[in-house]
Amino acid sequence: MTPLLLTVDEAAERLRVSRWSLYNLIRSNQLRTVKIGRRRLVPVAALDECLELLSEVAA
């Protein structure tokens, strides 16, 4: 079963970027996250959205 939410470390691993780079994507509003308690989690669907956004900018 595929999880709906990923930790920051898991999301960074899936995108093959550093934690620092992932937080930069979050700060620049290029990657959507949710906050549950003190934890910041990344919806799996947000990774696809982020990649589409970055592809459009690069084109």
From TrEMBL:
SUPFAM superfamilies: Putative DNA-binding domain (SSF46955). Pfam families: HTH_17. Residues 5-52 form the Helix-turn-helix domain. It comes from the Bacteria. This is Helix-turn-helix domain-containing protein. It comes from Actinomadura fulvescens.
